[in-house]
């Protein structure tokens, strides 16, 4: 990076003196000082350079006001002070520079009105005041600029109307007045100025009609822009403006049918978004076939109107230069013509919110330059074509709210540039392909909600480390929430409600500290409400309702204490929490029962791990009614013996009762000659479910008759009620 030179007064005076000598002696035109990173203010001594013809100080960092002494430079022909930070008002005496041809004060911080005195600059051809903070109105005296060719006042705060005197400037070619607060109508004199090639009043408050025949009166027109105004009229006949390259009329109130455009062979941009065009009839798109002559067509935006009918087959004959085709938010019906695949340079295709039906044509895969594909809100059916995998440059894929069926094609994983996918509100089914989560480029959203997906959430979901929104709600997904989900540290919204997920909420999700919305409602989740939620400072809404949570008290910190932002209803085992949640108070019995339930679950998981899933390598004995396994507990290295009984064998139940009774005699343990160390554990295998006996010993109590009796009672109760107590 270079440094900024701050101009001091002595330096500038010396420099000015040297320039004066050169100009006087040799009529020398001084070198420009653009892009030298100069700063400070422009010295008033510049007014002493009476022979100066060109003053080029653009692309620097000058501040303060323009010195009025510039008005002394009567020989000045070119003045470019653009791209600085010059403020203050434009000095009126700059109009004394009577020989000036070019004045560029654009992209500064100028204030106040355009000096009416500028109307005396009879030789000026190019006046650029755009991107400042100018106010007031356009002086009618600018109609005296008889030599003016280019007048650009865009992006200021100029109000009022366009003076009709501007329409009498015979040499005027470029008139740009956009980005102001102009109102009223366009003077008819403007539409009769045949020399105009560019006319723009975008982003104003203009209104009224546009002459229907202005294609005849402006035969040299190349660029026409009226975007974001309030013009009300039928679409004008522009077919005779054969030099027209851009017609930009979005965001107005134009009505009626679009005329044929076959003479506009140079047309590159035709934008009529957000008007009231079309009648919702079958013939609304008849004009499209006339655009096949536009061999330079790049932008065709017809969205947000009232067009009906079919998309004509002739679109396959559009120029291959077409990059954007917007037909969304209309009343179009029928199918997408397969010829769409011939528009090989198409980058954006939007047809969402129409009445389109049929299948998505496989020819869509021929659009290998496509970046954005929007087809949501239609009536498409059938499968997502495998050819979508050919769209390797695709960034956004939107096909929600249709009737699509089948599975997500695995070929989609070839679209390595995708940042957003929306398949929501369809009839898609099957499992979610793990390959989908290999798209590490996904950063905006992955929405698979309201379909019929089954199976578990693949552990590969952890690859989506840049994803902002994950929505898999309203499906038939099951299984435990994968621990790997905690790797998605960029998530802002996590929506998993309305599925069949079970098990505890993984502690790994504590890393999702950027979440603002967390919705796990209507699942079968168990265990406790995570304490770490209290530390999620950005969390605005959390919904854990209608699960089986309740292993501990309801937390009272963080977002949980805000009852309007939290929903935990439908969890019958919960107690405590803030009063507004209206849960019962936690009692000793609540706590004991929850502790026992949690202990049984933890014990079973420990036994499963200690025996490698009751592997045969851990088998130490087999009897008539069951098997005995040896295990090593991870927690403290305790060696345990676990007996698994098969109660489906006749007599097994009676044998089990006898053994439970015998366990009350501690000498029984010694006969097996197995070191148990304060952990007498019995397990019963019933229809693939293991119930663990004597949990009190696992929780650290000494072996005793009381413990045996308690455990025996629990097992009997479970056998009689067939419920896990």
TrEMBL record:
Subcellular location: Cell membrane; Membrane
Any single Gene Ontology cellular-component annotation: plasma membrane
Enzyme Commission number: 2.7.11.1
Ranges of residues in domain Protein kinase: 614-725
One of the record's GO molecular function terms: protein serine/threonine kinase activity
Membrane topology: Single-pass membrane protein; Single-pass type I membrane protein
First-tier enzyme category under EC: transferase
Transmembrane segments: 12-29
Keywords: ATP-binding, Cell membrane, Glycoprotein, Kinase, Leucine-rich repeat, Membrane, Nucleotide-binding, Receptor, Repeat, Serine/threonine-protein kinase, Signal, Transferase, Transmembrane, Transmembrane helix
Residue sites binding ATP per the record: 643
InterPro entries (alphabetical): Kinase-like_dom_sf, Leu-rich_rpt, Leu-rich_rpt_typical-subtyp, LRR_dom_sf, Prot_kinase_dom, Protein_kinase_ATP_BS
Protein name: non-specific serine/threonine protein kinase
Organism for this UniProt entry: Citrus clementina (Clementine)
